[in-house]
Specification:
CATH architecture: 3-Layer(aba) Sandwich
Radius of gyration: 16 Å
CATH class: Alpha Beta
Shape: globular
Strand order of the largest sheet: 3-2-1-6-9-11-12
Largest sheet: 7 strands, mixed
Order of helices and strands: HHHEHEEEEEEEHEEEE
Number of domains: 1
């Protein structure tokens, strides 16, 4: 598939899934999000982790605030991404640390200690759509694909079931799959 065709195909899927996700009423999104959080916390990789990189929820994503608080309370080092130039930088974050709102609506830490990416055990990867082979369509910036390229961390998508496609998603050579997809109703272990 040509690059221009790939971009158009991803854009169509992104738009269709976001319409569905955005249509979820807040109370349903929060209830389903709580179930996603419980399943994520139940993963053996998360239970063993000393450092977990999460994302700050924006828009209609699975809410992560309680997850950040619960992992921090367990003594896990929580990292949130900050975009510097064209790169994701993992920043140690504790609930209440100052943040700023990015142009696209997510919160990112202001200041804070930069973590060595290789020290992160588990990375929660945001995205719009995923297939059952772990392929993902993100928001189009490529930040996570570049960040994850050489990291050994276990990667998990935290999404609503409506974001998981049965058919294979179109991907390019730089698109990296996740190891597991966690929804409100299932954990999909991806075989590579």
């Amino acid at each position: 598939m040509k690059s221009s065709e790939l971009k158009r195909a991803k854009r169509r899927i992104r738009k269709a899934v976001l319409v569905q996700r955005d249509a979820l009423p807040t109370d349903i999104r929060e209830e389903r999000g709580d179930r996603v959080v419980e399943r994520f916390l139940g993963l053996l990789e998360v239970q063993r982790a000393t450092t977990v990189m999460l994302f700050s929820t924006f828009g209609s994503e699975v809410p992560t605030r309680s997850l950040i608080e619960r992992l921090h309370a367990r003594g896990v080092v929580v990292a949130l991404p900050r975009i510097e130039d064209a790169d994701l930088v993992p920043i140690a974050y504790a609930p209440g640390d100052p943040t700023t709102t990015t142009a696209f609506g997510a919160e990112e830490p202001v200041g804070g200690r930069i973590l060595d990416p290789a020290s992160i055990d588990v990375i929660a990867v945001p995205g719009v759509a995923f297939d059952r082979h772990g392929r993902r369509i993100g928001y189009g910036g490529g930040y996570y694909d570049r960040f994850l390229l050489e990291l050994p961390a276990f990667t998990a998508a935290l999404v609503f079931g409506l974001q998981v496609m049965e058919e294979a998603l179109p991907t390019g050579r730089f698109d990296l799959p996740v190891d597991v997809i966690v929804t409100e109703d299932e954990v999909i272990h991806v075989s590579t």
